[in-house]
Amino acid sequence: ESFEGNTITCEKGTTISFDDFNLEFLNNRYEITGDINEASMCFKVTTKNNSVLFLGDLSTNNAPKLLETYKDDLTKLNANYLQLAHHGQRGGSKELYEAINPNYAIWCTTVRNYNNWTVNGINTGALKSEETKGWLSSLNVTDVCPFYKTIKINL
Questions:
Q1: Are 60 and 40 in contact (CB under 8 A)?
Q2: Is residue 143 within 8 Å of 151, Cβ to Cβ?
Q3: Fewer CB atoms near the end CB (10 Å): N or C, the chain?
Q4: Mean pLDDT to the nearest integer, 47-68
Q5: 3-state helix/strand/coil string of 37-70
Q6: d(C-alpha 108, C-alpha 20), whole Å
Q7: Which residues 6+ apart lie within 8 Å of 148 measured at CB?
Q8: Predicted local distance difference test score (pLDDT) of residue 1
Q9: What is the mean pLDDT of residues 125-143?
Q10: Measuring CA to CA, how many Å separate 126 from each of 31, 52, 85, 88, 148?
């Protein structure tokens, strides 16, 4: 099926489905109060065998809003794979990741950011990589770090 010339309005609840593939938008665009990343939308891809939740650049300010939206049914957030909010830096929260309950966390970032690396060495910058790694470790989530390669998820 061709979508050429068609426009789909992406908002909370918008679903695009074909065959065994389902993509659902989980939130409306949040109000921007200072950082353009606050407008980030989240979506979940689900098939009969797997699910991947994409948090995009979800900010720490908006992680509680996403949780609030699904407080009556947090299972809507559950996913096997999670693309960490805002490159794993100052986005999301331990509570959000706990609700998602992923098996794997995808770090869409550089080796430098993952290691919080400056000219002074590893974990010497102002990033929150170690905090995020700690949350994931406490939740028994495996890191997937595709720094120099493409990862393949069998959907």
A1: no
A2: no
A3: N
A4: 94
A5: HHHCCCEEEECCCCEEEECCCCCCCCHHHHHHHC
A6: 26
A7: none
A8: 47
A9: 93
A10: 26, 29, 17, 13, 24
Query: Can you say whether residue 4 is alpha, beta or left, with left for phi > 0 and alpha for psi between -120 and 50 degrees?
Result: beta
DSSP-based three-state secondary structure for 123? coil
Tally the residues of the chain: 155
What does the block give as tokens for 111?
Answer: 């080796």
- Report the alpha-carbon distance of residue 132 to residue 138 in Å, rounded: 10
Sign of CA dihedral 103, 79, 93, 145: positive
- Which residues face 142 on adjacent strands? 104
List CB contacts of 78: < 8 A, sequence separation 6 or more.
Answer: 51, 99, 100, 101
Six-digit token string for 131: 């905090």
Mean pLDDT over 7-28 rounds to 92
